[in-house]
Amino acid sequence: MTEQTQQIQTQLWNIANTLxxxxxxxxxxxxxxxxxxxxxxxxxxxxxxxxxxxxDNLTFNQxxxxxxxxxxxxxxxxxxxxxxGYFLLPSELFSELARRGNxxxxxxxxxxDLAKVLTHIEQSTMGSESEEDFGNLFExxxxxxxxxxxxxxxxxxxxxxxxxxxxxxxxDLENTESDVLxxxxxYLIGQFASGAGKKAGEFYTPQQVSNVLxxxxxxxxxxxxxxxxxxxxxxxxxxxxxxxxKEVSAFYGQEMNPTTYNLCRMNMIMHDVHYKRFDIxxxxxxxxxxxxxxxxxxxxxxxxxxxxxxxxxLFMSDNRFSNYGKLAPSSKADFAFVQHMVxxxxxxxxxxxxxxxxxxFRGAAEGHIRKYLIADRNYLDxxxxxxxxxxxxxxxxxxxxxxxxxRASHAERSQSILFxxxxxxxxxxxxxxxxxEADINKIIETYKTYTCHSEQSEESQANIDxxxxxxxxxxxxxxxxxxxxxxxxxxxxxxxxxxxxEVSKALKTLDADMATTDATIADFCNQLDIDTPF
Length: 534
Description:
By secondary structure, the chain is of the alpha/beta class.
């Protein structure tokens, strides 16, 4: 991390704390991230408009009031809607609102103007290709909320203070090689998640887990046609995949929570992902999939653990589930998400999904689905056990399932599954467990060894004592397709033998010492003319 990035992260977190005392974490997260996003859009608009106007020796701030104002605004707007996906007037820029809020050395009333600007950003996209990507982006930024203050003046004063502090920060957007703001935005999302308790899992996957998933699905590739996350939250997993390769042509995701859906789209744009390159939908993935007829080269997901779903019998005619003969139980949708993802995985693709340990051994319908994936389709490539207490809001142990459809093309490897037990490899920081860089590298290198050395023997090169084991499909069948990791990775630590003769000798010595002590106490009691305590 550069010193500049660290400095901006600190400044943004300090500004966030300006709101922190006024409202709960969810609310002040929505406000501060929304205002940062508005500043980002404004600066991008200004830089792009200045670039267009450079041949005319004009800047964007000189357009309003110019004798050719209408023609210039129309030309800039058309270009901006195609390039950026939205449009702002010079008088609507973040810096202009912040300046007006502090005009004359005291706070001026700008709440009404600010509300109009945020609405206009969304309205500017209507009828254009970017309309869906920018629609309702600011709906969680309620400037009329009493959480900002009791009176309109109180609300205005707080907002002006936040805008003024943000206006002082240089996001360095002119530097196209840098992603300082994107990294800082991701940092803030992570900070909010760490303090949000149980709700955090709804919008954020811990960065070290995202790193593992991203490396698993990109192994051996430097470009991806597409990456998909069916429960994309804030989009952190999708963006982490992009950091592992030179290029991702398209990002796809679905998120049920409207607030988190807005956060994901903002996060994409703030990381300079062009609106034409991402397609994020706001719907229930299992009940109403929005990308049902598409397949993706890489799929990553951290679905809500053991969530409920309808498990309607109508789904037995759905192509995602029909071949299995059974649906995941309504009380635990874990395998429903797996089935959904497998259906959308391209033949040359890889998927990695985080799930609770129960998916490895629970019976009934889940056992049936597990057997189908292994015995009938042979899609399961690896099972990786993670430490407990690694996710925000839950302490349960989890695992990663890695699935591939092209295992048959690797003849030797297709007859085995890799098991990794990384559950004891972590660092405890306060109340949370974290995967260290060395822990992540060990997981990835072990999987890489397994994938690169297809020649299997009794002693696979991926076998590591008390850590990893390559099990044959026959072994798994003998275990009735129970994937519980301790069945395959022996982590038993033999205790040192006990010398009973030494123990007996020590007990005799202890008895003698106790007899001596008892006699001394009895003597003291006699001298004091009191009863002995024994």
